[in-house]
Design brief:
It contains four helices and eleven strands; from the N terminus they run H-E-E-E-E-H-H-E-H-E-E-E-E-E-E. The radius of gyration is 31 Å and the shape is globular.
């Protein structure tokens, strides 16, 4: 009798274990049958606080006079921001992970950079600053048009340079063949123009987005952006390798977009897309 009771207890014990196992098994099976784990809660986008990674100066719509073999009034109908200095090697490497420059130094302008590399940098900078909430999602960094570049360079001046008409006055404003010691120099050491832009004259030439072609002959132009295609892209502003007379706001040079040389770099514009 006692043995039976013990056997019965044993039977009841194992029955209880079996039932518990079935419950646990059913629980886990229900969990598996219930599908994937619940998705993580959506991450709220960072609030936008206008704080570009590169120092910028704002330009409102306006006009300037382009003086070549004629005088043209050029109108800029949409405002934009322009980098206060040429893109440095530190900035370029931060977003691109490489540095193509011939002259090395974190505060030197990036040089020996092709048009295509400059465009890739603008795209990477746009992506990074949007993600960090530094710029709105309808804003992009890009190379300026030639007209935007000239407008920003002159900053209201009506002379050949932002500082006057004579290259004899360039020493305080530009690194050129006369004073650069055959190399690039750290950005921001010379006097800025009236809108706070440094090195618009000299140090390195700067890529703009326009394809090269002779300027239109019209007396008035509105938001010109060059021809739709071509073989060469334009760069502006003069550089360490050339005399100051080549650093006039209207001066221009050209090169194939895949090529690079150690006296050409760039600065970025920031614009709102339509």
């Amino acid at each position: 009798m006692i043995m039976w009771c013990r056997n019965q207890d044993t039977v009841n014990f194992y029955a209880a274990i079996s039932k518990g196992a079935l419950v646990v098994s059913a629980f886990f099976m229900a969990g598996c049958d219930g599908g994937q784990a619940p998705p993580p809660a959506p991450v709220a986008p960072k609030p936008v606080v206008f704080n570009p990674s590169i120092s910028m100066s704002e330009f409102k719509p306006g006009q300037f006079i382009r003086v070549t073999d004629a005088r043209q009034q050029v109108s800029i109908t949409r405002g934009f921001w322009m980098g206060t200095h040429e893109v440095t090697q530190l900035e370029f490497e931060l977003f691109m992970g490489s540095n193509p420059s011939f002259f090395k130094g974190e505060t030197l302008p990036v040089d020996k950079v092709s048009f295509e590399q400059a465009v890739a940098f603008c795209k990477a900078l746009t992506k990074g600053d949007r993600k960090e909430g530094r710029i709105a999602t309808n804003m992009i960094y890009r190379l300026p048009t030639e007209a935007e570049w000239e407008y920003a360079c002159l900053a209201g001046a009506t002379t050949a340079f932002s500082f006057g008409d004579s290259e004899a006055d360039a020493d305080a404003h530009a690194w050129s063949a006369e004073n650069a010691d055959d190399k690039t120099n750290p950005v921001g050491q010379k006097k800025p123009n009236a809108n706070g832009l440094y090195d618009m004259h000299g140090n390195v030439w700067e890529w703009v987005v326009d394809w090269f072609a002779p300027h239109p002959k019209a007396e008035q132009l509105v938001d010109p952006s060059g021809p739709p295609g071509g073989k060469h892209r334009v760069f502006k502003g003069g550089g360490w390798y050339h005399e100051a007379k080549f650093a006039r706001s209207s001066s221009r040079f050209m090169m194939e977009p895949g090529m690079s040389i150690n006296f050409v770099g760039f600065r970025v514009a920031l614009v709102e897309t339509p």
